[in-house]
Amino acid sequence: MEDILPLFIPIIAVGGFFAWMIALSPVGKAFAERLRHGPVPPGGGTADDHAELAESVEQLRREVAELAERVDFTERLLGQQKAMGQLEKPRA
Length: 92
What we know:
Elements lengths: L4 H20 L1 H12 L9 H38 L8
Helix pairs in contact: 1-2
């Protein structure tokens, strides 16, 4: 144990020096800002980006509602045909 302790002193000193240099570098400052504020969306997340995203979401909602109406119509149509016995029997 006593022989290992002198080996750790230069390792800790060199590692501490590099950690200190990284903390002072632009990479260290950017990492600290990200830790403070959380991840930044690509492009900075301007108001125009938010408006465009909101419009895209609304368009998708309209399309999903239209598709749901089509599925309901198809289900009703198939239900009527089945009730009338118009569906063909499967061929073997």
